[in-house]
Amino acid sequence: MSALPREELRGLFLFEHLSEDQLDWIAGNAVLEEYEGDTVVIREGDEATCFYVLLSGAIRMTRLVSGTEVETNRSDQRGVYFGATQFFVHQDTDHRYGASVRALSDVTFLALPSREFSVEFRRWFPMATHLLEGMYLGWRNSDTVIGSRRRLLALGELSAGLTHELNNPAAAAVRATSALRERVAGMRHKLAFLAKKTIDPELLYQLIDVQEKLVKQVAQAPKLSAMQQSDREDQISDWFEDHDIDGGWDLADIYVRAGLTTTDLDNVLEQVGDTFMDGAVRWLAYALETEMLMGEIEDSTTRISALVGKAKQYSQMDRSPHQWVDVHDGLDSTLVMLAGKIGDGVRVVKEYDRDLPKIPAYAGELNQVWTNIIDNALGAMGGEGTLTLRTWGVNDQVRVEIGDTGPGIPEDVKGRIFEPFFTTKAVGEGTGLGLDISWKIVVERHQGDLRVESEPGSTRFEVCLPTEEQASL
Fold it and tell me: What is the CATH number that goes with domain 318-466?
């Protein structure tokens, strides 16, 4: 199809200041291209042959990240451009499209051949071309170096947090496994000892029956205070002493932790009798402690599995980039990943409204927002204070507030904190991009809002997110 007349070309913001000769060249070399909805216009990685300008309709831009298609932009603004956008850069190899673009509706584009346009553009704007080329190549080189370093540092910090959390349950499982091996060995020796004695088979059967009943009680063992624990140990120790059982104090701790009382011991005595009571008590102690150790191992491995699940939730591994999410899942997984930074001096308070609906969002990107804001809050508090996470709903929005008890943000700084590259940290300690990226994710990506209120001792970042799909997501 033929291109637009000069008058219409001048109505596009890209061409409004071109000379008449330049507009004539555009009009003579550009063509109109039309596509139906849900059609791929350009594909990432293909040779970049055209510079496209949107005239009507809506488009969706995506990139492949580790094999997953990630949407980077949507637009229906007349005049937006895409395709061979680095046409002005001299390169030995062919240019490739850096993203795929799909039509969301019937669309019309103005398409310019990139090679021919590059020659004319460099002739029209020689100084601007040199500046743009230098800026692009400089940005690309520095981004490669700095971006790689930044990603490694971020990965190191998050890995430290995860390893910190995994260490405790893993160490507990190792200790419990070692102790369990000793107890099982003790049970084998005790069984061999019992086998050497002449024991009524009926009595042995009763002992096994008692063992199974008591072992089942371990799972329901009540949580006792230190005082209650001590009192019960005294009672059971006295019971053992009254029945001539040596080493009762050591055995008492096992029986109390298993949730047993002197009443249970009376029942054991009633079934096995005085003659066999000493051996029965020690055999049961092995069985009870073995059950408790297996419970510890199960609890530890469950915690490890849960932590791995939180890490997967945080990274959004094996999940669609855009999905309906519960904001609490992202907040909790971020706390897990930053556990190494939180430390013992920071108290975390959660005031969640668990009745909030799920929201349509890019979950991985929201996790980046929570990370940036929480990390800043921890830095402001310097290792001591209260971190508060609160959620609530207002009309068609879910709101998340992240507050800290740090020194606050000065008034002359508060108005600039969302500016790119603005930072109050020392040189080399911050890029000034965390809150700028958060602003773009919340406001531009999710059509929400990000605001801050601050005074000494109380800084609160409030993130507002819509509960319904937005056209520009």
Answer: 3.30.565.10
